[in-house]
Specification:
This protein is α/β, with parallel strands linked by helices. The chain has helices at residues 36-55, 77-85, 107-119, 133-139, 146-162, 201-207, 223-239, 261-279, 284-287, 295-304, 315-320, 329-343, 359-372, 374-377, 380-390, and strands at residues 2-6, 60-63, 92-99, 124-129, 167-170, 175-179, 193-197, 215-219, 249-257, 325-327, 347-351. The protein is built from 15 helices and eleven strands. The two termini are 22 Å apart.
Length: 392
């Protein structure tokens, strides 16, 4: 199994009483809540935490894109990836991901990612997402065009990386007489592509197409939903003529590690509850606007994502559903061993900072996890995949 340290860079100084006047920390929360001096401190602290994960031996570090919210202060994740490109030496840098349907010109991402890949000597992982429904409100984008714009933007970027230029591209949404991406990416034919998702059936079927076989990441879902979507991916791959292994699927999940289960529970409790009950809080129509998902996908996502739309979630609720992993190194090893054996994911993306969790606790948790959990799983998914293939 490979481990990628995931960071959302939340505005941890958000007034917890904001919800007395506002129904969400997204889209409509006035930016007067944001103090740039505090933001300066947080950005630099968060970059330190990502760099520390590299020093502690994580396989990769992750940044991502969100707009107009206190949940994640990275509207342009390439800025953070660029800062990390020269400050890290070993780890992959995963941009998870750019919201392609929101772009007026997808070639800016083709150029940005090619620059990052070249600077790092091939350490970039290119994440492409449709963006959650809230982004469409913030950006004034039509959610009913989400799938079509995503596919066309993706095709333009991949062609820009792999076809000799200049060439013309004529689509429904994007029109170019001269596609001629400079620089070209360092990794050939292009950086690996990962697809984080909330569980859209259409996205899973698209990602498993034999011409793509993109790594699929399930984000912030109870472990039962995770198992269902991982199996959906494998079934879709099988229908299209190939066998998906652990290296094709991953799980992003908030994680906290401390000396004992009791200490972990006590230290994480206020911060994970702030994360789910304050930062993630949004009405259902903001999360899933009309037209964003098909009916079949929406039914599944609503079931898996009830936690995102409000309601008081306790740390015990979250731990019971395994939407939050918390405990001693021994407990986390046991839980991950169980889940990985049952579900077969090859990537784990632990969100080691969440909500208001302070720097010293992030560092402690990261250290314990890196020293006492990660080594137990080194190579396990690769060995499992090899056994599966040899048995065929």
């Amino acid at each position: 199994m490979k481990f990628f340290f995931f960071h959302l860079m939340p505005y941890a100084a958000l007034d917890p009483d904001y919800d007395r006047q506002h129904n969400s920390a997204w889209v409509t929360l006035p930016n007067s809540y944001y103090d740039p001096k505090i933001g300066h401190q947080l950005y630099n602290r968060y970059l330190d935490e990502l760099e520390y994960a590299d020093a502690m031996g994580f396989d990769g570090i992750c940044v991502n894109e969100h707009h107009s919210n206190a949940y994640g202060m990275m509207p342009i994740p390439g800025v953070m990836a660029g800062a990390l490109a020269r400050r890290t030496r070993q780890c992959k840098i995963a941009v998870l991901g750019r919201a392609l349907p929101l772009l007026n010109n997808p070639l800016t991402v083709a150029e940005e990612f090619a620059m990052l890949d070249t600077i790092t000597g091939g350490r970039l992982v290119a994440g492409f997402v449709r963006g959650i429904g809230a982004e469409y409100h913030s950006w004034g984008a039509n959610p009913a065009e989400s799938h079509a714009r995503f596919h066309e933007a993706h095709d333009l970027i991949i062609q820009g990386w792999t076809r000799p230029g200049p060439f013309a591209f004529e689509g429904k949404y994007y029109h170019f007489d001269y596609v001629n991406v400079w620089p070209r990416p360092y990794q050939q034919p292009h950086p690996p592509v990962w697809i984080p998702s909330q569980g859209s059936r259409e996205t899973i079927e698209w990602a498993t197409h034999p011409s793509r076989k993109y790594t699929y990441l399930q984000t912030f879902s109870p472990v039962q939903a995770l198992a269902r979507y991982m199996q959906m991916y494998r079934d879709s791959a099988a229908r299209q003529g190939w066998q998906a292994g652990p290296e094709n699927v991953g799980w992003a999940v908030p994680t906290y590690c401390a000396e004992t289960d009791e200490i972990a529970h006590r230290e994480a409790k206020p911060h994970i509850e702030f994360f789910f009950n304050k930062l993630l809080r949004m009405p259902q129509e903001m999360l899933l606007p009309p037209g964003y998902l098909s009916l079949a996908s929406m039914q599944g996502v609503i079931s898996a994502k009830r936690t995102l739309s409000g309601g008081a979630q306790t740390i015990d609720d979250l731990m019971e559903k395994a939407i939050f992993l918390c405990g001693s190194p021994a407990t986390l090893r046991e839980k991950l061993e169980q889940f990985q054996s049952q579900i077969g994911f090859g990537y784990l993306l632990p969100t080691m900072q969440f909500g208001t969790l302070p720097h010293e606790l992030v560092t402690k948790s990261t250290t314990l996890f890196a020293k006492e959990v990660i080594p137990h799983f080194r190579g396990k998914a690769d060995r499992q995949s090899e056994r599966q293939r040899s048995s065929k």
